[in-house]
């Protein structure tokens, strides 16, 4: 039995070498989809000839390792602990110690902190962020990437880095997007998936507009402009339904600065119509079941 | 000023203007401002410019804030990693210095001016006056302007206003399916639909019909040297390989065979009077689970009903204002009505 429903496959498959954006709202969490991304990249039965990422680095600012471990095991059956030992998976914890650095590190002096990431304690593949500075995050992520198996490329998942906008008032959205791009320039990284919140309350300006709303909107919009694919998760527009958890929308943007020269033929003049499912914008409904499984279906095909 | 053209000449003139802009003819438009949003990104337009530029041996320089992996024929000045605006300007100058004619594309004007603090006139002087080249700047209209913390700029004009003031051409990018939907709504005197983030719906970032694969609609305003503006709306379809000649030795792209940008009103889907938009403006009927239309039998029965005024017409109005009404069982005749 495939761990990923067939209908979901075009969503989690992404153009190689691309930056992706995943947005979610408070009511419609995206953790189930992130687990599928993990599963798609990490599952051992992947075709060997494919060049896609086969390792994952997950950086989470809002959820800790235990959450992801349980969630991934429940929904896809993968054992993150084992994958960590094989150096196929690494986790950077941005939640547990993010604001505790001062207390822990003061006796040793703050000077060495940004340059030297804290070495992982215990088993390999677990790293902890202890500062909100992006330099520190970069250094820690670099260390985590270097520790991974060098044979294939890596998918980097950044889970809710937008929390930093709220935590660090001096941080501009463009600093964060630069941070994403810097990660993406590393040769071992093939894809970067950024997960941001798209709740209206966070990004629609009130009167007078709050700086955080403007920053969130600008971060979201700019990251969307940079991305080759935008995946959005939201509730049903008509409200809550018992047999539908939410709506998943994928919009693609095929033109990028890398493929300027790749022109279509006259025959397939409307490439979008004849294109692969992975290259089309589409929308489906999904239902996350109690056992962690997920059902994906077209609109109007809900009942079984 | 009177327009001596007929329709065909006007069309040819308008397409010529756009063709010059796309092919980066010298002195056509030193500073082109491209306004885009998530519903239609500027990429197809820029791509066309880059291909035509490179095919004519114009050097293309991209000051990038939003991409790292760039086609090798395009010289990149990484704006995202540079610490200061000074570094970016130096990079641009260096990149331009070894070539006669260049096209400088900036993929995010907001970051250039506000975040990196580059003075727009300084940039203009460098690219346009010193090197006599073309500057193209992209501005995302769905980004908000962050007010400065000190509030000193509260009375200063917004960046977008300044850019519009300086630009010699302004291109606004729209998705073809959105333009068609808006037109369909207009023809029915309905409010124009909104798309993507503008709908204000929770969680929606991009519209499903954004970045139409058929092509891009460009609303252009050209400012002539005389100061006279000319506006026109164009449709630029997706380029295909047969649009270009084989590339010459050492060049990445071949030159254009024949101009394929058209006016939007020449596009069959737009000029068609029964254009149906995806916004659903054409399907004006109520969406219900039951059928509101009539069957043939019902239609026939309906046509057979003789309505009261047909009776009245037959009698040639001779009876004045008699009310043709037969009292039913449940009616009771009330005489006292007039006495109140």
TrEMBL record, chain A:
Single GO BP term: tRNA wobble uridine modification
GO cellular component, one term: elongator holoenzyme complex
Coiled-coil regions, chain positions: none
Annotated signal peptide: none
Protein name as annotated: Elongator complex protein 6
Family: Belongs to the ELP6 family.
Pathway: tRNA modification; 5-methoxycarbonylmethyl-2-thiouridine-tRNA biosynthesis
UniProtKB/TrEMBL annotation, chain B:
Endpoints of the signal sequence: none
GO cellular component: cytosol; elongator holoenzyme complex; nucleus
InterPro entries: Elp5, P-loop_NTPase
Major subcellular site: cytoplasm
Subcellular location: Cytoplasm; Nucleus
Record-level GO BP terms: tRNA wobble uridine modification
UniProt keyword annotation of DNA repair present: no
A molecular function (GO) term: tRNA binding
Family (UniProt): Belongs to the ELP5 family.
Protein name: Elongator complex protein 5
Organism for this UniProt entry: Bimuria novae-zelandiae CBS 107.79
């Amino acid at each position: 039995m495939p761990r990923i429903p067939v209908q979901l496959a075009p969503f989690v498959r992404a153009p190689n070498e691309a930056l992706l954006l995943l947005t979610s709202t408070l009511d419609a969490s995206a953790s189930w989809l992130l687990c599928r991304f993990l599963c798609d990249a990490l599952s051992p039965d992947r075709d060997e000839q494919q060049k896609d990422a086969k390792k994952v680095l997950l950086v989470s600012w809002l959820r800790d390792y235990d959450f992801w471990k349980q969630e991934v095991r429940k929904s896809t059956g993968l054992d993150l602990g084992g994958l960590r030992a094989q150096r196929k998976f690494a986790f950077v914890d941005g939640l547990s110690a993010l604001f505790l650095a001062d207390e822990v590190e003061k006796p040793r002096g703050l000077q060495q902190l940004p340059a030297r990431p804290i070495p992982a304690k215990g088993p390999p593949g677990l790293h902890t962020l202890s500062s909100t500075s992006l330099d520190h995050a970069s250094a820690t992520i670099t260390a985590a990437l270097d520790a991974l198996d060098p044979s294939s490329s890596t998918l980097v998942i950044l889970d809710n880095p937008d929390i930093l906008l709220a935590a660090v008032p001096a941080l501009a959205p463009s600093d964060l997007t630069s941070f994403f791009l810097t990660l993406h320039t590393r040769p071992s990284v093939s894809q970067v998936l950024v997960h941001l919140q798209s709740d209206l309350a966070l990004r629609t300006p009130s009167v007078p507009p709050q700086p955080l709303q403007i920053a969130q909107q600008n971060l979201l919009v700019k990251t969307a402009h940079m991305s080759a694919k935008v995946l959005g998760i939201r509730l049903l527009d008509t409200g809550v339904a018992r047999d539908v958890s939410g709506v998943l929308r994928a919009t693609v943007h095929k033109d990028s600065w890398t493929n300027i020269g790749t022109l279509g033929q006259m025959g397939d003049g409307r490439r979008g119509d004849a294109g692969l499912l992975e290259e089309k914008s589409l929308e489906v409904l999904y239902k996350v079941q109690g056992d962690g499984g997920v059902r994906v279906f077209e609109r109007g095909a809900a009942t079984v | 000023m009177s327009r001596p053209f007929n329709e065909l000449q006007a069309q040819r003139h308008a397409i010529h203007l756009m063709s010059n802009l796309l092919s980066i003819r010298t002195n056509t438009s030193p500073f082109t401002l491209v306004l885009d949003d998530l519903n239609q990104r500027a990429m197809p337009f820029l791509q066309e410019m880059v291909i035509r530029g490179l095919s004519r041996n114009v050097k293309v320089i991209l000051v990038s804030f939003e991409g790292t992996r760039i086609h090798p024929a395009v010289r990149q000045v990484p704006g995202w990693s540079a610490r200061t605006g000074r570094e970016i300007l130096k990079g641009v100058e260096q990149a331009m210095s070894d070539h006669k004619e260049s096209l400088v594309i900036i993929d995010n004007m907001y970051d250039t001016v506000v975040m990196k603090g580059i003075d727009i006139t300084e940039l203009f002087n460098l690219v346009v006056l010193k090197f006599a080249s073309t500057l193209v700047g992209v501005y995302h209209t769905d980004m908000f302007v962050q007010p400065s913390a000190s509030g000193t700029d509260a009375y200063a004009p917004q960046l977008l206003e300044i850019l519009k003031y300086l630009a010699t051409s302004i291109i606004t990018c729209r998705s073809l399916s959105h333009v068609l939907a808006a037109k369909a709504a207009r023809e029915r005197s309905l409010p124009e639909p909104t798309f993507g983030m503008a709908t204000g719906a929770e969680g929606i970032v991009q519209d499903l019909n954004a970045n139409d694969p058929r092509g891009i609609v460009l609303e252009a305003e050209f400012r002539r040297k005389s100061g006279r503006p000319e506006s026109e709306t164009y449709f630029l379809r997706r380029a295909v390989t047969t649009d270009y000649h084989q590339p010459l030795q050492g060049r990445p792209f071949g030159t254009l065979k024949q101009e394929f940008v058209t006016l939007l009103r020449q596009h069959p889907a737009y000029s068609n009077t029964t254009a149906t938009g995806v916004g659903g403006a054409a399907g004006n009927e109520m969406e219900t689970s039951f059928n509101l239309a009539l069957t043939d039998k019902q239609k026939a029965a309906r046509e057979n009903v003789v309505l009261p005024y047909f009776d009245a017409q037959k009698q040639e109005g001779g009876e004045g204002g008699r009310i043709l009404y037969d009292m039913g069982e449940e009616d009771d005749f009330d005489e006292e009505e007039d006495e109140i």
